[in-house]
Amino acid sequence: MKYLPIGLPILFVVCFPIFWVAVSFLIALMGGWLALARSYGVEKLPDGESLSGQSAKIGLFGNYNNCLVFVLTDAGLGMRTYWLFKWGHEPLFIPWDQITVAPAKFLGLFDFGQSRLDIASHPHLSLTLGQTLSQAVRAKLAQRLQV
């Protein structure tokens, strides 16, 4: 029976975390999270209605499946990743007056209950939210308009 060289597990333990952090930064860069963080980055999200385990798509390359926490407040929308994906992903807080909500239609035709959030200061970026999160965001905006 052949054994792995002792250096291989050590190499994995050293290289895998470096690879993980690099990929996390690359997703943040290519997806647009880092661009949003320049305008809306915060140290800590405010208190509000918290929705964890959410999914969203940012830009063309930022797919975040079941790893986001959204916080809905009267002032705006906060979001952060789980700690395992935090590198390159500082928490974001976007005021409601910077957000326009529209249905996100698949192929421009089919509506699966998703929403597209357009950010005023970043017209080239949009966030696509899943159905559950879309309903919560729309409810918060409707509540805000009634006040």
Task: Describe what this molecule looks like in 3D.
The structure is a single chain. The chain has three helices and seven strands. With 147 residues, the chain is an alpha+beta fold. Strand 6 and strand 7 (122-129) form a beta hairpin.
Quick overview:
The protein is of the alpha+beta class.
CATH superfamily caption: Pleckstrin-homology domain (PH domain)/Phosphotyrosine-binding domain (PTB)
- CATH A-level architecture: Roll
Can you tell me the residue ranges where pLDDT is under 50 for at least 5 consecutive residues?
none
Share of residues in helices: 25-40%
What value does the average pLDDT take?
A: 87
Share of β-strand residues: 35-45%
List keywords for this structure.
single chain, 147 residues, alpha+beta, 3 helices, elongated
Summarize the topology.
Elements (H helix, E strand, L loop, with lengths): L6 H25 L1 H8 L8 E10 L3 E11 L3 E6 L10 E4 L3 E8 L3 E10 L2 E8 L1 H16 L1
Antiparallel strand pairs: 1-2, 1-7, 2-3, 3-4, 5-6, 6-7
